[in-house]
Each structure stands twice: as structure tokens, then as C-alpha cells.
């Protein structure tokens, strides 16, 4: 056990405490203790307020889209045989990294990219524009790109859940005269509850931590418009050279992530280990 | 065929095609020889320049050494995490250790925190201790970051094993060391493989530590090299960049589809 405790403490817990400590010191040259001075920047700095709004959009998008699409696709492809192929199409992107997804979607979304090409061909050239250039459109398309990748895992998990529902339950429901919608609503959905919580929790935390896709696609730009908290932290610390502000962002992000984790972990953890 | 069925199959087909389009364009345009690429994306394969594009990516973005680096980082740190985490799981589950709950939280807390909270202190102390821009530095942090989750999975799995085996072996006078290698390791092998696969992919796909803790091309991991290649998009042209993305994704694609079973079990045990 000692090596695990040692590695985690030295590489993770000590830096964590140091970041909390650092967040209370200002970034001026004297670097004095400034209580919550760095935290007030969330209100005073428009880039950071924007970052909070973007993070909220990411969270809603990364939770809702994979949940709804994943459930729908899993249910619709569970029954028929040919739909395995369809399912493969959806699951495939999950095996790509965030950076690779960014490369693919940059190709789709740049000014002479695939989306604009399709729009022009369809005679909708007026709709074609630089998708990554204007807010809030750029954040929305990146959330869609993320959903393209993340839905696959939701589909896999929901299928596992669907296959664990005993067929007798459904048959009993059908005998009692439940239509297929009623079956879904009253038998399938309640049984998928535990899996849904896993999917929601996973997407929530991934949405909050999302970094790779945004970093490779826009680096948080143009003009810091697409930053989420994770990207803002990196920008403030390493590009704007305001480590105190960066530390404050990291702490706020941690609090949000911990709160989100708590929502689903408390159902799952059996800490006593007995 | 009922209307409902037609609707359902139609929806599935539309969704599948929508999902396939980016993948399709990725493959098709990575195939187009970069000299003959002009203007907009191609929708149908034309010529075969995949290997040329890949080798251009290999040379221009120095993807080659980065691939070797990432292979080293992913294998070594995932292995280290599996070994260290199974020791820890063995200690907290099988051995009569005091304050198990405390130790559990000390180790597990690492996976709950976002990476952003570690990165600057690590950057500073790496710079001071000459771990910055070294392979051993990256292996250490990747292993450290992988341990909490690996521990969590190994521990949950170990909890499901029957205790009688351990008690019987102790009665027969087996040492803890012997017990670990002869009983614990063989019984938890499938969880170990799941954890290894999962952590291999996590390390392989990491971008943030790669761009923060390294600068040289012969140290940098693969996703940092890919981000760099993407930064050169207008110079090298889309086919080379896409071929690069495809190239760096091949190992995880292969692993994912050959070990899907382990992925799913890993995911289920996790969150």
C-alpha cells in the first residue's frame, strides 16, 4: 500500500493543497495575501464570466445529448439484427482521442470544410460561415462534436442495461396489455435507472473536465470566447501568466466537480470495505 | 411491416449515416494524395496516398518518436499503476490494516479531482527537480494519475472474492507475500487486464500533461505531436493532418475492438 499512498500524495495531493494555498495570493509583483481577491475575477473579468457560461452550456450539452441519443439508439438497435452495423457507426468514434476528434471536426467546420461545402451544394450557401468564429455558435458546434464521440459509450452502457432486463418482465407486461410505449415507459425506463445514473455522472464529469477538444480546435479563442473553466485555467496560468487567478479557477472547478461526483458516487460507494 | 417499424428503422438509418459521415470523410480524405488535394473535401476515394500522407506526418510533425514515447509511457505507467494498485487493494481488503476507510479515501481522492488542480505545482517542481521534459517524469505522473482509479477497480473486484480461501491459506502458514502472488494475483487477473487496457488508453489519449511538462520532440507524447500537426494545418494540408489523426488512433482502435469486453466491465465498475 505504501507505494500507492506515496505516489498519490506526492504527485496529486500535495499539488492540490499547494494550488488551494496559491489561489489566495494575488498576481501582482508583491504577491501578497489577498483573501478571495482572485475569486472576484469571476465577476469582474468578462472572459471568466463567459467561461462560466460556456461551462454551463457544456455540462447541459454533454449530459443531455449522450443520454437521450444513447438511450434512443440503444433501444432502437437492441432488437433487429442489421442494426448492429448502425450501432457500430455510432460506437466507432468513441475509440478516438479528444485530439483526433478535434482534427476531424476542424476538417468539417473550417471555412472551406465539409459542412460549408454541403450547404453550398444544397443551395444554402447563405448559411455557410466560419462555424468556429462566432459565439455562441462555436461552443454549440463543439458540444455537438463532443456528443459525436461520447454517445458511443452511452449506447454501450445502455445496451448492457437493456440486456439485463429479464424478458419475462416484458412478456408479463405485454400479456397485461401494455403497448410498446407503455412497456418502455413503465418497465424498461425504471430498470435502466442505475445505468442512467452512471451515464449522467460520467458525462457530467467529462463535460466539466473537457479540455482536449477545445484546446486543439480553438485554443479557447477567438478572443477567449470558447473557453471553459478547464481551458481558462490553462490560459490564465501558462499564457496570461496569472497563476493566482489560474489557481482560483482550478479550485472552483474542483468544487464543482466534487459536488457533481458526490451526486452519483454516494449511491455507488461502499466505503466500509467489509 | 408496421408504420412504427418503418419509422424506427428509418431513424436508425439516418442517425447511422449522420454518425458515419465524419468518419467516412476522415478516411477518404486521409487517402487522397496531398498533391492532388485542392479546395474542398473529397467525398469519394481518389488515388491512394495514405501511406505517403502518413509518412509525411511521421516526418514533418515528428510523429514517429512521439509514437514510440507514448507507447513507452502508456505501457510502463499502466503496468506500474496495475501493480501498485493491486498491492494497495490487497492491503486494504485482505490484510488486517487499520483505518481502511482513511487509506481508501487518501488513494481514491486523486481520481475525483480535475487535472487542472495539479498542473502548475507539478510544472514548477518538475522544472526545479530536472524531471521537466524527461521520460521518467512523464511516466511518474501518468502512473500517479492512473493509480486511484486502478485501485478503486481492483479493490471493488477484490471485495467480491471469497474470504475463506485467504483464511485457509493463512491457517496453513502462508506468508502475505506468498498469498498475494499465489492467490490474489491469479484471482484478480481479469480486473487487472481491464484496468491495464483502460489506463493504456487514458495515457495514450492524454494531451494536457504532454503539452505542459515537455517541450522537446523526442520526449513529447503522441497527442501533443498531433496538436502540433493540427497547428500546421494550412501548411501541410488536410490529407496529411487527417492521416496523422488516423495513424495515432490506430492503436486505441485496435485495442478497443479487441478488448471491448474489458472496456465495458471497466466502465461498469467505475462510475
TrEMBL record, chain A:
Gene3D superfamilies: MetI-like (1.10.3720.10)
Membrane-related topology note: Multi-pass membrane protein
Domain ABC transmembrane type-1, first and last residues per copy: 52-264
Pfam families: BPD_transp_1 (PF00528)
Keywords for this protein: Cell membrane, Membrane, Transmembrane, Transmembrane helix, Transport
Keyword Cell membrane on entry: yes
InterPro entries, alphabetized: ABC_transporter_permease (IPR051393), MetI-like (IPR000515), MetI-like_sf (IPR035906)
Taxonomy, superkingdom: Bacteria
GO CC, alphabetical: plasma membrane
Compartment(s) where it occurs, according to its Swiss-Prot or TrEMBL record: Cell membrane
SUPFAM superfamilies in alphabetical order: MetI-like
Residues passing through the membrane, by range: 56-76, 88-108, 114-133, 140-162, 245-265
Main location: membrane
UniProt GO BP: transmembrane transport
Family: Belongs to the binding-protein-dependent transport system permease family.
PANTHER family linked to this entry: ABC TRANSPORTER PERMEASE PROTEIN, INNER MEMBRANE ABC TRANSPORTER PERMEASE PROTEIN YCJO
The protein's name: Permease
Organism this protein belongs to: Actinoallomurus iriomotensis
From TrEMBL, chain B:
InterPro entries from the UniProt entry: MetI-like, MetI-like_sf
Predominant subcellular localization, coarse grouping: membrane
Annotated compartments: Cell membrane
Transmembrane annotation, as ranges: 12-32, 71-94, 101-119, 139-158, 179-204, 240-264
Cellular component terms (Gene Ontology): plasma membrane
Record's keyword annotation contains Membrane: yes
One annotated GO biological process: transmembrane transport
Gene3D superfamilies to which the protein is assigned, alphabetical: MetI-like
Keywords recorded for this protein, A-Z: Cell membrane, Membrane, Transmembrane, Transmembrane helix, Transport
Domain ABC transmembrane type-1: 67-259
Protein family according to the UniProt entry: Belongs to the binding-protein-dependent transport system permease family.
Name under which the protein is recorded: Permease
Gene source species: Actinoallomurus iriomotensis
